[in-house]
Amino acid sequence: MDFQHSEDRQMLADTLRRFLAERAPIEARNKAAYGETGYSPDVWRGLAELGVIGALFGEDVGGFGGGGFDIMVVFEEIGRALAVEPFLGTLMAGRALAVSGRTAELEEIIAGTTIVAFAHAEPQDRATGDPLATRATADGDSWVLNGAKAVVVQAEAADRLLVSAQTDAGPSLFLVPADAAGVQLHGYANVDGGRSAEVSLKDVRVEVSARVADDGTAAIAAAEAAGLLALSAEALGAMEIAKSATIDYLQTRKQFGVPIGKFQALQHRIATVLLEIEQARSAVINAADAFGGETADRALSAAKYTIGATGQLVAEEAIQLHGGIGMTWELPLSHYAKRITMIDGQLGDQDEHLQRYIALGRAA
Amino acid sequence: MDLRFTPEEEAFRDEVRAFLADKLPAHLSRKVKHGLAMTKADMEEWHGILHAKGWLASHWPERHGGPGWTVVQRSIFEDESARANAPRIVPFGVNMLGPVLIKYGSDEQCQRILPRILDGTDWWCQGYSEPGAGSDLASLKTSAVRDGDHYVVNGQKTWTTLGQYADWIFCLVRTDPTAKAQEGISFLLIDMKSPGIEVRPIVLLDGDPEVNEVFFTDVRVPVANLVGEENKGWTYAKYLLTYERTNIAGVGSSIAAFDRLKSIAGLLTRGGRPLADDPLFAARLARIEIDLANMATTNMRVIAAAANGGAPGAESSMLKIKGTEIRQAITALTRRAYGPYAQPFIPEALEDGYNGEPVGPEDAGSAAPTYFNYRKLSIFGGSNEVQKNIISKMIVGL
């Protein structure tokens, strides 16, 4: 057994950590994250030049990584730095393109010359297995898309949207230029930084070749699996920082003449935070290990459930142990707490994944 | 054992309900219900309406303009107001300073200050916490040095809620640096327009500048603005804190927020069924509902004891802890109910008159900011950890 990342992955993590610390420290991150574009195009370009995007994809499709632990390493660093650059959409859209054999488009993504957002979730709720409300109909040499997509992360940054839509043959994915006629974005800031958008599609006409997946279901599942792992690892990275900041505070903040970390009531609470984060790390390791295999879905739900539950504990305890200062915009911690909290709601919260875990167990 | 209110109390409840139905402006209750931002004018409007009715200063004796209510009546009024989505009044003058002046202030101070609290002329804020004195409030350092007919005040206060609107601040200041921590503190009233005062906003994690830092540099305060005796301020501060904690359980407003959450859970669907039918979400709802019902009775038990002359001790700490835990659980579950739509944040949409395109289900936009903002409940007014210290001190005594 060896629980160390491989040397290559460790180097990738170190490089990424140094780059983000230098180019996107928290003040710069906040300026970009809560600013007009919701991310830093400079930082994104720099990361692409470092080859970080390539780490998310396998050699067979032009990357140099693509395994579960590659995704874990990259997104843990993203979480540690609270990076808001469009990694999630890139990963999810890229994985869907990869399983569909669209390597030409993927190359542009890996090179950082094209940003693709993953537009799958919809404003209307639907039962598992129900068709998507967004429809694609064949019309001569083209497809025509109609519908709406919800909370598409960094959609405004994207050159293209990878849109899921129901066809007569089942769900499929379509690469839609962001400036195509009939595509409308209603962008907004997210409470935890970065921007998302509601996307409406009205008689959007795309070429036949824009349909990237014959089996949309598999491509969507591949995207979601990668997204779940990524978000879980991101939360883990953010939780590590929240924990360190809280430990520092317990050691330095004095009340009643002593550092507050002298109080046993608080010692036990930070101890719980620490052990729950270690449990969460194990959950992410389990998911990264299972990634791509037969038991992946269950391990991914286990991880997303765990980081959701642990995340709320860590975010709330980190703020509480800091007291009022933990609620201030000025302190980096508050931004970590927000990100950790909001990750729970992305791609299904802890309750949904607990139930999915149970259902997958029954099916097995 | 009889958990019912008396017929007189029920009649009073009807009277309160009729008043709220008649006088609570719809634009204010709408804002409270939907978690929208309250402006200064909003807060002043409700203050004025309650004052006109004579129901503003519910804790004050009748001779100073209070309604002469019993503890139970006050509780009924607070519950009904909260359930009708009435705004909470700004507490600093009415609920905090008022009772202290009535008990410890001079006649001159009462005559000069109390009417101006009632009619809204003066907006008060609280100068207790300092950067180095939070849970350990008695370690405060802001100094007041006597110079003829004045004190000269130097130092800094923090977490001053709504201090940006304040005309006056009541402060704990150190007048005897040689005495033991609690024994050298005085209670001073300071005009916010005095030269040497600077207010700087503190932006909270939801982007809201509701609290402030207040800096004092050689601020001259007339000795006439000392409350009670010099170096006895800690006694008054503790008395004030018991008032800060009245209605701390916030049963009424938690019930209102919970009812709202239940209706959201019936409207929103996930995986094709209403959230309320999702077994895990339903379990979360049920746990809160049970907790809330238990707390409502605990709260009434404390009120009944107080009505019989008991002084609130560890009970108010208990209610503060439980009340804030339940309220925070409601805000967390409300955020959870909106799923991914809790993430979009459009601050303008939380202001009156926003005409932009809404994002997600109704009220999704206020769920996360409210959740984050309400983390303060377990921190302020004596953190929940300090409350547990108080309880354990009373029961273990070591």
Automatic annotation (TrEMBL), chain A:
> Which keywords fit this entry according to its UniProt record?
FAD, Flavoprotein, Oxidoreductase
Residue stretches making up the Acyl-CoA dehydrogenase/oxidase N-terminal domain:
6-97
- Which segments constitute the Acyl-CoA oxidase/dehydrogenase middle domain? 117-204
What is the required cofactor set for this protein? Answer: FAD
Residue ranges annotated as transmembrane are none
Note whether Flavoprotein occurs among the keywords: yes
* Acyl-CoA dehydrogenase/oxidase C-terminal domain ranges (all copies): 228-340
- To which protein family does this belong? Belongs to the acyl-CoA dehydrogenase family.
Could you identify this protein by its name?
A: Acyl-CoA dehydrogenase family protein
Source organism: Sphingomonas mollis
TrEMBL record, chain B:
Q: Answer yes or no on keyword Flavoprotein.
A: yes
Q: Which cofactor does it need?
A: FAD
Q: Which residues form the Acyl-CoA dehydrogenase/oxidase C-terminal domain?
A: 231-394
Which InterPro entries did the record assign? Acyl-CoA_Oxase/DH_mid-dom, Acyl-CoA_Oxase/DH_mid-dom_sf, AcylCo_DH-like_C, AcylCo_DH/oxidase_C, AcylCoA_DH/ox_N, AcylCoA_DH/ox_N_sf, AcylCoA_DH/oxidase_NM_dom_sf, Mycobact_Acyl-CoA_DH
Residue ranges of every copy of the Acyl-CoA dehydrogenase/oxidase N-terminal domain listed in the record: 6-120
Task: Give all residue intervals belonging to the Acyl-CoA oxidase/dehydrogenase middle domain.
Answer: 125-218
Give the protein's recorded name: Acyl-CoA dehydrogenase family protein
